[in-house]
Amino acid sequence: MATAPAVPHHIAIVMDGNGRWARRRLLPRIVGHQRGVDALRRCVRACQPRGVEVLTVFAFSSENWKRPPEEVSGLMELLGKAVAREVPEMQNNGVRLRFIGHLAALPEGLQRTLAQAERDTADGDKLTLNVCLNYGGRWDIVQAAASLAARGEAITEGALSGALALPSAPDLLIRTGGEQRISNFLLWQCAYSELFFSSYLWPDFDEAALDEAIADFAARERRFGKTSEQVQGGA
Ligand code: IPE
Ligand code: IPE
Ligand code: MG
């Protein structure tokens, strides 16, 4: 019955619930974000042995600038420190880091840290970790269309797909934190992703929670517009 492969090649995650995790413990929201970095490290370590080859995470949306200035600056500082700190382990584990989004609007020091981390991990060939920063699905579609227009290229589905900041499509999109919405994440790329909503707050998301999402994915039938009979018949 199940036609999805047992393990998704590409998983995307909306890492939501850091603030609520902290609030429940009467801690500042930034502590939730710090624990969120720990959860991401755990998740990256868990993906490789399970056969996941691409992990794309939503770390900061184009809309998150609307948050209180101290939370935004705390997040930017945390991001820079976390990236610099995690690079050696990523290099050892063959993880290639990529940053996806409107990066030119980020603080300059952070931009330099991100560029250095991309260079330092460029040889990683076990797992690609795409971190979406100042990313919005609408921004991505607009920048792709604008780059085609600037080059005088026709806007076709194939050309637009190839011009996206993230040209590959997730097989499985997980959102933690209990909310069931996309929040302007990979709008184009998730057209046929399987969606999994987890009630875990992101800092609590562990290997067992990941396995639950992967097992759910394995039981889905991905039809891409065809009938079940066609899919079962291998058409
Ligand atoms: C997600 O956690 C992390 C970012 C958006 C940066 P939140 O900070 O949105 O956590 P909640 O939704 O307030 O619990
Ligand atoms: C989505 O979470 C963005 C990230 C996880 C980075 P939000 O917490 O910003 O989403 P909304 O505002 O609840 O939709
Ligand atoms: Mg949230």
Task: Tell me about this structure.
With 235 residues, this protein is α/β, with parallel strands linked by helices. It has a single domain, classed as Undecaprenyl pyrophosphate synthetase (3-Layer(aba) Sandwich), CATH 3.40.1180. It is built from 8 helices and 6 strands. Strands 3-4-2-1-5-6 form a 6-stranded parallel β-sheet, sandwiched between helices. The chain starts with 9 loop residues before the first strand and ends with a helix. The structure holds 3-methylbut-3-enyl trihydrogen diphosphate (2 copies) and magnesium ion. Magnesium ion (MG) binds next to loops.
Low-confidence stretches: none
Helix content: 40-55%
- What fold name goes in the CATH topology slot? Undecaprenyl pyrophosphate synthetase
Mean pLDDT comes to 97
What order do the helices and strands follow?
EHHEHEHEHHEEHH
Q: What kind of sheet is the major sheet?
A: 6 strands, parallel
Radius of gyration: 18 Å
Strand order, biggest sheet? 3-4-2-1-5-6
Number of domains: 1
Q: Name the shape in a single word.
A: globular
| Beta-strand content bin | 15-25%
What's the N-to-C terminus distance?
15 Å
Alpha-beta content class: alpha/beta
- Provide the CATH top-level class: Alpha Beta
Explain briefly what this protein structure is.
By secondary structure, the chain is of the alpha/beta class. It has helices at 18-24, 29-50, 69-92, 108-120, 137-150, 157-163, 207-218, 228-232, and strands spanning 10-14, 54-61, 95-100, 127-135, 172-175, 194-197.
